[in-house]
Design goal:
The complex is a heterodimer of chains A (253) and B (253). Chain A is α/β, with parallel strands linked by helices. Chain A has seven helices and ten strands. Chain A has a six-stranded mixed sheet with strand order 6-7-8-3-9-10, sandwiched between helices. In chain B, 85% of the residues lie in helices and 0% in strands. Chain B has nine helices and no strands. The longest helix of chain B is centred in the first third of the chain and has 46 residues. Chain B starts with a helix and ends with a helix. The chains are: A alpha/beta (253), B mainly alpha (253). At the A-B interface, strand 6 and helix 2 of A face helix 6, helix 7 and helix 9 of B.
Chain lengths: 253, 253
């Protein structure tokens, strides 16, 4: 059953004199419970597409549906967001940052605290609950942001290059742990990256986007068995998929 | 240790006061120019009640003016700062008004509102308003859009976004405006009292100056200084509290 349905989506920006076409006739679906990644060159409209799915930007034409409902604004109960920058509130502890969406929603205090404690445990930060963002490493901050994205228990998590600012080791570790979180929670993850390795390692399917105006030029199923070990990254099969995607993007230029 | 320091401070003060008293007593300086400490004590003893009532008047005027300047400065600053159009239209006007010596407008206020406390409150609030509004505008303009995207994605209402995201993020910048603005309120109230009024510490200073009651003038100045120092201590506390948090924010990058 699809949780995301995108059909004939287009987006134009009125930048100066000539309108800028960011997305052109984008259509795809993502099934419930899957981990799907969108890759493409910088500036191809990946983030624009994600912003439309998140209800933060309106499409120029076409439509996006989430759980069958047409997206025309943020759906905090259905969609959790994780941005490239953790965007934590600096005056709140890790715990209070995770709690913030539930606090705004007016959830009962006891239920809220219980849920946040469980989420911090899920992302491995129980010991850091009372730390402020500036006391946490980049990876830890992004873990807090992931826990916050899960706070309202949405079925879908949208992630916009969440690990792009991290060093390679932390990034690899975060990817591995994200798969763990995904398995435990059974959520659907729609993930954006321009790292092909990250995309292939994490995903059930990789959507490949062309340079601007962004179109989906191919969908590649990734069939490595799960749970996946990091070793697969060095395998010949992995390299073949990586080359294939790379050629797709290069040809589209 | 602190006990010894207190004793030392008292001793030095007493010594200075004695020297000061001696300088005046032995006629080294004209009594009209420099009142002896004993003259000040005498002024306090003879007219202490009047001064106390005047002090209360001034305090009430300052409190009212500060309340108005803070409320309007913050409210208008947030409103203007959140709208690019409003900011572009009004910020230059506000900055240029801030740059002129507002005291030249006081005769107008006096003509409109009389020489009672109302004109003092309005003038004080008016002079304090500009730095507060300008700093608040800057603080709000400097908030990165990602925080607003976050607020929308977690379903914050407009009021929650203003109160729990925008306001706290702008607070560090606002505090410097509050400092300057509050200082200007104190100056504004005291100066206008001295120019034309029927009450307040400023009025008494001015009144006794014309009568060459130098002891009374000095006592009035002492009261005004006490007030200014008290206000400054309060503001420093506020600044320090929010300063801690400014450091935290820098840690978050």
């Amino acid at each position: 059953m699809p949780i995301i349905e995108v059909s004939n989506l287009a987006k134009e920006f009125n930048a100066g004199r000539a309108p800028l076409r960011a997305l052109d006739d984008v259509s795809f679906t993502v099934d419930k419970g899957r981990f799907v990644t969108l890759v493409g060159p910088s500036g191809c409209g990946k983030s624009t597409l994600l912003a439309i799915l998140a209800g933060l930007t309106a499409a120029s034409s076409g439509e996006a549906r989430i759980e069958g409902e047409r997206v025309c604004g943020p759906m905090p109960g259905k969609v959790g967001m994780v941005f490239q920058d953790p965007t934590l509130l600096p005056w709140k502890t890790a715990f209070a940052n995770v709690e913030f969406p539930l606090d705004l929603r007016g959830d009962d205090r006891a239920a809220r605290r219980k849920r946040c404690a469980a989420l911090l445990e899920l992302v491995g930060l129980t010991e850091f609950a009372e730390h402020y963002p500036h006391e946490l490493s980049g990876g830890m901050r992004q873990r807090v942001a992931i826990a916050r994205g899960l706070a309202q228990d949405p079925q879908l998590i949208l992630m916009d290059e969440p690990f792009a600012a991290l060093d390679e080791q932390t990034r690899t570790r975060m990817g591995h742990d994200l798969l763990d979180i995904w398995t435990k929670t059974g959520k659907t993850v729609f993930f954006i990256t321009h790292s092909l390795t990250e995309a292939i390692y994490l995903s059930d399917a990789v959507l490949v986007m062309s340079p601007r105006p962004g179109r989906i030029i191919d969908t590649i199923a990734i069939e490595f068995p799960r749970p996946r070990e990091l070793d697969i990254i060095g395998s010949a099969a992995f390299g073949a998929i990586r080359n294939h995607i790379w050629h797709l993007i290069a040809q589209a230029h | 240790m602190p006990q010894r320091r207190i004793i030392r401070t008292i001793a030095i003060t007493a010594l200075l006061a004695a020297a000061w008293e001696a300088v005046v007593r032995f006629g080294l300086v004209n009594r009209i120019i420099l009142a002896a400490p004993s003259d000040i004590v005498l002024a306090a003893a003879s007219d202490g009640g009047i001064f106390l009532r005047a002090f209360a008047t001034t305090l009430a005027e300052i409190a009212a003016a500060v309340a108005i300047a803070w409320t309007l400065g913050v409210a208008i600053g947030i409103m203007v700062g959140s709208s690019r159009l409003l900011a572009a239209a009004t910020a230059p006007v506000l900055s240029s008004i801030f740059a002129i010596p507002l005291i030249v407008l006081y005769p107008l206020l006096m003509a409109w509102l009389g020489i009672g406390p109302l004109s003092k409150v309005v003038f004080g609030a008016f002079s304090g308003f500009f730095p507060i509004a300008l700093n608040t505008i800057d603080g709000v303009r400097a908030i990165e859009p990602r925080y607003l995207a976050l607020a929308r994605s977690i379903g914050a209402t407009r009021l929650q976004t203003y109160g729990r995201v925008i306001l706290p993020l702008a607070l560090p910048a606002m505090v410097s405006g509050l400092r300057v603005g509050t200082g200007l309120v104190v100056i504004g109230v005291l100066v206008t009292e001295m120019l034309a009024s029927l009450g307040g510490v400023g009025f008494l200073i001015s009144y006794h100056r014309t009568l060459f009651n130098t002891g009374h003038v000095y006592f009035g100045i002492l009261l005004a200084l006490t007030l200014a120092v008290a206000v400054n201590i309060g503001l420093t506390r506020l600044d320090r509290r929010i300063g801690n948090w400014r450091l935290r924010e820098q840690g978050e990058e």
